[in-house]
């Protein structure tokens, strides 16, 4: 039996996608094929009930997910070969690689939809952008949305904005984790033991995110609720903006961060 879903690249993102597909009932493990040059990843896929497949399995599949690194795509495309317009829908999760470049590398006729999930897909809390202007029919879009809804929420965004999406949500978790690292370090520097500092910073971030998610209130509203005039929070926030003043305050610093990530995505797209 040929697989319905083929994952090309069984790294963190590919792993998260198949777990979501299996747990949500989109595909049984036996209906999923995996292509990856790393034997350890293939063995992991087999342990989950999936199969290692060759490029010959792709034409009969329903969906093919390209979950390789952008720098590895040329090699992966050579392995896959041509995909016909009547063949499987090709879904890319690669940063920077344009849909027309993917189509050209696969023979010029494949139906391609770009997506950009993020690493919280591993716990089914991703936000995935889907290129709204792909040259595919609505049922194809719905297949993509169903697959990525199994690992979180989805939004449709024009592909022209995908470098910005990559900066905001694709790279975003790393920015949050880096902030948490700095937060815990600073907690140690003002006298707290390391274990306590890390626990306080980590649980405060998780609790604040949960509050934001549960109440559905805007962050500025929740910030105002904990910021008394002349109080400790106000003093800390003022110093935070002052320290980032060279970049135009914390907002300016975040803008510089996102621009750098977005521009790198553009560079990757140029090859």
Would you write up a description of this structure?
- With 271 residues, the protein is an alpha/beta fold.
- The protein folds into two domains: 5-162, Rossmann fold, CATH 3.40.50.720; 172-270, ProC C-terminal domain-like (ProC C-terminal domain-like fold, Orthogonal Bundle).
- It has eleven helices and eight strands.
- The protein has helices at residues 12-23, 39-47, 73-80, 99-105, 138-149, 162-170, 172-189, 194-215, 219-226, 232-243, 249-270; strands at 5-8, 32-35, 51-52, 63-66, 89-92, 112-116, 126-131, 152-157.
- Strands 3-2-1-4-5-6-7-8 form an eight-stranded mixed sheet, sandwiched between helices.
- Helix 6 (162-170) packs across helix 11 and helix 7 (172-189) crosses helix 8 (194-215).
- The longest helix has 22 residues, at 194-215.
- It is elongated and about 65 Å long.
- The two termini are 37 Å apart.
- The mean pLDDT is 94.
User: How many structurally independent domains?
Assistant: 2
Task: Pick out the low-confidence regions.
Answer: none
* Strand order in space, largest sheet: 3-2-1-4-5-6-7-8
* Average pLDDT, all residues: 94
Elements, N to C (H/E):
EHEHEEHEHEEHEHHHHHH
Helical proportion, percent range: 40-55%
Give the total of beta strands: 8
CATH superfamily of the largest domain: NAD(P)-binding Rossmann-like Domain
CATH architecture of the largest domain: 3-Layer(aba) Sandwich
Largest sheet, if any?
A: 8 strands, mixed
Q: How much strand?
A: 5-15%
Termini, distance in Å?
Answer: 37 Å
C-alpha Rg, in Å?
21 Å
Overall geometry:
elongated
